[in-house]
Design brief:
The structure is a single chain. This protein has about 625 residues and is α/β, with parallel strands linked by helices. It is about 55% helix and about 15% strand. Strands 11, 12, 13, 14, 15, 16, 17, 18, 19 and 20 form a ten-stranded mixed β-sheet that branches. It has a six-stranded mixed β-sheet with strand order 3-5-6-4-9-10, with helices on both faces. A two-stranded antiparallel sheet has the order 1-2. Strand 5 and strand 6 form a beta hairpin. Helix 3 packs antiparallel against helix 4 (about 105-115) and helix 3 (about 65-95) runs parallel beside helix 6 (about 140-160). The longest helix has 30 residues, at about 65-95. The radius of gyration is 35 Å and the shape is elongated. The termini are far apart.
């Protein structure tokens, strides 16, 4: 039989280039990567042996029989081993964890190997006939059965883990299996065409570009491993049940470094920091997991506390970059894996959460990730779930706080306040759940749900003296291009008088500088809705912005009131602020009125409206109705 080795030679050329590039670029060495490297080399030798066995058969009159037999035996051996290496790679890729039954997947390979090792006597796999010509034995089909079984087992495992896997990962495994099976089928029915090599090389290329490309695991700037490599290594260490420590180093306010010294100096600084962190211990692995965040995985045998102290001491000293001394502050999170041995995904969430929390605190902070952090993350997760359910089921509670007018001596407005209740935690403070809603993007849907609830309330309950109902507005809502049009449409659908409606915006510089927000405000003012600047005295607004924006109401934050009756300077600041806004003809509301003395003091200053627990706490709609009736 004449064999066509053109496909195998082409495969060998492509594979040689891939091997050279892979081993030159590779720095992320972990279990899966090691299996891929082994698979790569074995396929190389498999193709070489395939070509050599063909050439050996052509020149059997020159090549000794023992050499020819050894070449064919070695080739058959690799043909048995390669499918099981592929299966092992799939098992590692999917993180298959049923170790007690894993031997079943390798049983056909062991049986086939037994036939191969006894082949010199049984001639079951191959033999040489009377003319000394290579001939397939009766049990040669075992190689195809073993290959098919390993492919099928890999596919079954992938389907079993499909819900837990990334869709791209599943499609990749499916494609590789299909290509390999097609190659085997062509080889089986057209034995003169040596096609297994090209199928295997195509599979290797798909795996390389999907999961094993060194660039996918390498940070281009610092030449350290990146977040992809970190997640991969973390999963691998959990799979092997290795204990380790994590040190997460976050450079505080790194944006200021770029702003002051320039991006080039900032990049060089990151390179120097990475170079230093590589040297802190010989057995650690360093990853740049975010722009200004580095993570060290340290074996549990290392003296982590000493390493931590060394890092903190180094950052007390300046970094010399481009003839400049630059001082850096870092926040550090320290975590021990043995405290959370079950779920690497949860551990990553805890790290990310701890880093965010550390950045909110003073610079140079150390957070030991412990059960308290775990419980805080659990609370955050439960709140986010509750927000989602409240939006989906329209179950958000609305309370309304009456606002008193000392001039008219009655309640003239209401502030609508959303309430989120979770059985395990009770009522969640609005500042907390609104913050999470803004962070995860659900604030848009939540905001429209609040408006729907309030508009329905305004439609069904009309009070004689109530002139305004205020709704707190998120900056993110106001910066949506269609926000004004959506509100106008909703008002018309619900038949709500826009003159009874007021939106409260918190004093935030980022809001006031957004053109989209300003345009939305002006469009809604033209429609008849008024705007109130909330929490004045806590934010960053300048008078220039306040005067240029269509605010009609200024709400003075309670922090200006709290010490006004006991501190002369605080009282001067408050009275001066009130006087200024009164002269500018703004309607003034003072928040946080909790005592009779405060109410009397503010009434004498001719403040338009007073809000606080001295007058009433926020009330559900049914309680509000009775309250208004009893105080009219």
């Amino acid at each position: 039989m004449q064999f066509n080795i053109d496909f195998e030679i082409s495969s060998l050329v492509i594979l040689s280039i891939l091997i050279i590039y892979f081993f030159i670029k590779r720095q992320h060495v972990q279990e899966r990567s090691k299996i891929y490297a082994l698979y790569l080399l074995l396929i190389f030798f498999d193709i070489v042996l395939d070509i050599l066995t063909v050439l050996s058969s052509y020149y059997s009159h020159i090549i000794p029989h023992s050499i020819d037999y050894l070449l064919n035996w070695s080739y058959q051996f690799l043909q048995i081993i390669l499918p099981v290496i592929f299966l092992t790679y799939i098992i590692t890729l999917t993180r298959f964890h049923y170790k007690k039954i894993i031997w079943i997947f390798y049983l056909p390979t062991f049986i086939t190997l037994a036939f191969l090792f006894t082949n010199p006597w049984s001639h079951a796999i191959f033999y040489y006939d009377a003319m000394n010509v290579y001939t397939q034995g009766n049990w040669q089909i075992l190689l195809y059965i073993n290959g098919a079984f390993c492919m099928l087992a890999g596919l079954v495992i992938s389907i079993f883990y499909k819900k837990k896997m990334d869709k791209y990962l599943f499609v990749t495994i499916l494609s590789i299996t299909l290509i390999t099976v097609i190659g085997l089928l062509i080889q089986f029915f057209h034995r003169e065409l040596l096609m297994t090599g090209i199928g295997l090389v195509m599979s290797l290329l798909i795996l390389y570009f999907s999961f094993e490309n060194p660039d996918y695991f390498t940070d281009a700037l610092t030449n350290t491993m990146n977040r992809n490599a970190f997640i991969s290594e973390l999963n691998n260490m959990y799979l092997l049940m290795n204990e380790f420590h994590l040190l997460v180093i976050s450079i505080d306010d790194f944006k200021s470094v770029n702003d002051i010294f320039g991006v080039d100096s900032g990049d060089m600084l990151l390179k120097n920091v990475a170079q230093y962190l590589k040297t802190v211990t010989p057995h650690q692995k360093l990853y740049r997991t975010n722009g200004d965040i580095f993570t060290l995985i340290i074996p549990k045998t290392q003296l982590t506390e000493k390493i931590l102290k060394n890092i903190q001491d180094r950052f007390q000293e300046p970094w010399f970059i481009n003839h400049m001394n630059i001082h850096l502050s870092i926040s550090i999170c320290l975590l021990y894996s043995k405290l959370y041995p079950q779920d690497p995904t949860q551990l990553i969430k805890m790290i990310d959460y701890a880093i965010i929390e550390s950045k909110k605190r003073e610079h140079g902070h150390l957070i030991r990730v412990d059960e308290a952090v775990n419980m805080a993350l659990k609370r955050k997760t439960e709140i986010e779930k509750a927000i989602h359910l409240a939006i989906e089921n329209k179950t958000l509670e609305m309370h309304y706080q009456p606002i008193y007018s000392p001039i008219e001596q009655t309640y003239t407005s209401l502030e609508a306040l959303a309430r989120l209740h979770i059985p395990a935690y009770g009522y969640i403070p609005p500042d907390e759940f609104i913050h999470y809603a803004e962070s995860n993007g659900s604030i848009i849907d939540l905001g429209y749900l609040i408006m729907n609830e309030v508009f329905d309330f305004m439609k069904h309950y009309q009070f004689q003296d109530i002139q305004k109902v205020s709704i707190n507005l998120s900056a993110i809502q106001c910066m949506q291009e269609t926000f004004a049009d959506d509100v106008i449409q909703l008002c018309q659908q619900k038949n709500v008088n826009p003159k009874l409606l007021c939106f409260e915006l918190t004093e935030t510089a980022s809001i006031l500088e957004q053109n989209i927000c300003i345009e939305n405000m002006k469009k809604l003012v033209d429609f008849g809705i008024c705007f109130s600047l909330d929490d004045y005295g806590t934010g960053y607004s300048s008078m220039q912005y306040i005067l240029s924006l269509p605010f009609q109401i200024i709400k003075i934050d309670k922090t200006l009131l709290n010490t006004a009756l006991t501190n002369d300077k605080s009282q001067i600041i408050l009275t001066t602020t009130l006087s200024m806004f009164q002269k500018l003809n703004y309607h003034i509301v003072v928040e946080g009125v909790e005592t009779q003395a405060q109410a009397y003091f503010l009434s004498n200053l001719q403040v338009d409206s007073l809000q606080g627990y001295y007058y009433s706490k926020p009330l559900p709609a049914n309680e509000l109705i009775h309250f208004i009736k009893n105080h009219t």
